[in-house]
Amino acid sequence: MSEDQQAVQQDETTASDPAAEPQAVTLATEQANATPMDDSDPLPTARDFEESSPNNINPEVLKNITVNLSIEVGRTQIKIKDLMRLTQGSVVELDRIAGEPLDLLVNNTVVAQGEVVLVNDRYGIRLTRVVPSTERLKSL
User: Fold this and answer.
1) Mean per-residue pLDDT for 33-41?
2) Domain 68-140 carries which CATH code?
3) How far from 44 is each of 25, 37, 48, 124, CA to CA, in Å?
4) Which string of DSSP letters, residue by residue, matches 34-101?
5) Where along the chain do its domains lie?
6) Which of 5, 25, 32, 40 has the fewest CB atoms within 10 Å, measured from its CB?
7) What is the pLDDT of residues 72-97, one digit of tens each?
8) Cα–Cα distance between 6 and 136 in angstroms, integer?
9) CA–CA dist 8, 17 (Å, integer)
């Protein structure tokens, strides 16, 4: 750390608490190059944004992309006039038969099927079938 950086750090420390001892200050460039000590997502570095060819995709960048995951119980189509008649207690019939596997969708693409389970008083899904990637690509 340069002398200027240490002086600024000491000024900031003594301004807030005169009895406090100076602590190490980590610069943003040092944080980007540091190895994270906890499970939090590290900040992207310049290396993450380097130009890459289709055969050279950085898997760490892909791992940090957020996707929407949803479970589909079933679907139906109804007319707007029937939709407007729905009230509390109305029953809407879906296209699935009871006991049929539910669809697990990632960004509206079916990637697996499974059954409902309870996990610590919350709903979950136990996967019973993973859709092969060749089949998923056909639906795109």
Assistant:
1) 51
2) 2.30.330.10
3) 20, 15, 6, 32
4) SPPSSSSPPPP-GGGGS---TT---HHHHHT----EEEE-------HHHHHT--TT-----SSPTTPP
5) 1-65, 68-140
6) 40
7) 999 999 999 999 999 999 999 999 99
8) 56
9) 14
Give the whole-number percent of the chain exceeding pLDDT 90. Answer: 46
- Residue 126 CA to residue 113 CA, distance in Å, equals 8
Q: Say which amino acid occupies 34.
A: A
Nearest to 73 by CA among 116, 30, 102: 102
Report the distance separating Cα 92 and Cα 35, nearest Å: 52
How far is Cα 103 from Cα 9, in angstroms, rounded to an integer?
A: 55
